[in-house]
Structure formats: C-alpha cells, structure tokens
Amino acid sequence: MTNCKNVIVDTGCANLSSVKFAIERLGFSATITDDIEQIEAADKVIFPGVGSAKHAMANIIEKDLVETLQNLTQPVLGFCLGMQLMTQSSTEGINSTEGTEDIIIDCLGMIPTKVKSLDAQGNRLPHMGWNTLTTVNEHPVLKGINIDDYFYFVHSYAAPISEYTLASCEYGSKFSAIIGKDNFIGCQFHPERSGALGSKIIKNFLEL
Hints:
Layout lengths: L5 E4 L6 H10 L5 E3 L2 H6 L2 E4 L5 H10 L3 H5 L5 E4 L1 H4 L2 E4 L14 E2 L4 E7 L9 E10 L13 E6 L1 E2 L6 E7 L1 E9 L2 E4 L7 H12 L2
Parallel strand pairs: 1-2, 1-3, 3-4, 4-13, 5-7
Antiparallel strand pairs: 5-6, 7-10, 8-9, 8-11, 11-12, 12-13
C-alpha cells in the first residue's frame, strides 16, 4: 500500500473537495479516502466538516473506522464538524420527527469535552460569518495566529470553554474556537474558507 502523506477522511459528508483544494493551493497533496490502511499509514490526517454529527457518526460506524480513528498517533486536524466528532458527544442529532429534544450522539471521544447547542443569547443561529478569536494559546498549529484574527464560522453547536480550549470566540456566549489534546486538534471554524489566516493554520499543521 502506497503511503499517502496527507489523508482527508471520507466520512461520507460534504466539503471534501474544498478541503482538498485548500491543501493543494498551498503546494501540498492530499488523498480523500476511507481506506483503513491508507489512514493508518498517513503522516497527517484531516477530518473535514459539513453535515450533522448523527449522519457522520453513522457513516464512520458503517465504514468500520471508529477504532482506527480513535487510535491514530500522527497529527490529526478537524474542521468544524470534524472537530466536533473528536469530542465525547454532541447534541447535534435533533430530528423533527422524533420531537423537539436534542438527541445525544456518541462521538469518537479523543478530546474529552461535549458539544452542545450554542448559547447565542438571542443572536441568530446558525452563527454564520466572520468572527474574531478572543483568546489564543501557544500551539505549533497556531503559530502566527493572534487574538482578534478573523475566521469563518458556520455552526449552531459548540464545545464549551475547558482545559482543552486552545482558542476561544464569542457569539452571545464564549465557546471553544479551537480545541486540542495530544495529537488531536480541532477548529470550530472552517480554515479552508478563512482566507490567509485559515491557510496559515492548514500550512502549520501540514508542516508539523
């Protein structure tokens, strides 16, 4: 099996191509795959993110990828939903046919925090558009990223501020814009849609 240096995990959700293009614009190559051997052999792994946690986790389970993804030891970067899939659970499983209560979806659990509905304090949901970081911790992937830098968000669910928060944002209430633990790091925003600063995060990651 040929080693694919950078792998984008095919979770069966949207946005795969835009993530691949963002990597290629930086002069790197990437392969979209759900092949376990290719994912395990990759130098870097990216979890893309558009869609629902319920749908994505069902796909991951159907593809028999749960254990593979949980046991990755190389650097892993998640975008938006991809970040949320790294957490313990998400309430992003609401189904209008099953009532109005959020359904808790068990996620992959590499970062022990829980995604819940964003407390927007009356602001319109989803939180969609450009917003600034309010705190930024030191981390190799965040080299050159600072407080008040703008990134592009599209989400109605978020991880709370915790010991795993690497950067925060505020939209009605504070939430984690970036979380990380060990080799896993996730961005609630879309780096691939966030201009030069988003590209900087992707490049920092690919150069680890």
